[in-house]
Design brief:
alpha+beta, 8 helices
Amino acid sequence: MICQRLEQGWEVITQRNHALLSAEMLADWKFEKRPQPWAQLLNACAQHDHGWMEEHLDPLLDEAGRPLDFLSLPFEVTLEIAKRNLRNAEAQSRWCAILVSRHIEYLFRGKDDEQANEALAEIVSQRDAWMADLHLHPSRMEELYELLCWADTFSLLVCCPPSDFTRSLEMKAQGVSYQARPEQDGAWTLAPWPYRREALEFTYETRFLSRERFLDLEEFRQALRAAPVSQRAVTLRPGRE
């Protein structure tokens, strides 16, 4: 979950809704710049966080009963969620599994953790087999994944409150570096402009929890299921290059 503390309670965005927003951010990409298979890329983008299931027995609260943001989860929990994510992707398509596995590698490569290194070695070995099934060259996988990573980053910039984490994010794809900026009117600008249309509008969902703390996971899940859902619109227009 992406959690933001409010004066009274929390604003919560599910990982899966953030992932859907990332796919929407790619959907209008200029035709001549689209790698193929484009539909498989959009699907993998929308699915890349589907291991994050709030109904599973993941520790969604800290010791004080406050919701845990995705950046605050223990590493071993994040790794299990990543494995579940890959199983969900593989059940849908080889393309989805390949791109999701590449995302897991991006997140965990270089971790000083034996468990992570063992899991990554197994994931990469399995991905090599999937790529062989599709006769897919690594350079083509990277061409596709680069755009998934770009869209994931842009969605995180929009959904997450400003922090050292968001300030560290960089958007680069197809040899181009992009600058996304929030404006005072609530819109965002993007430069250079990679889309077909002259301006775009996206939406994502937020859930409001009026309480700061919860007694246990079940109480929190019930509150999350009952929370009012709001549609938040994001206007995007070209920025200055």
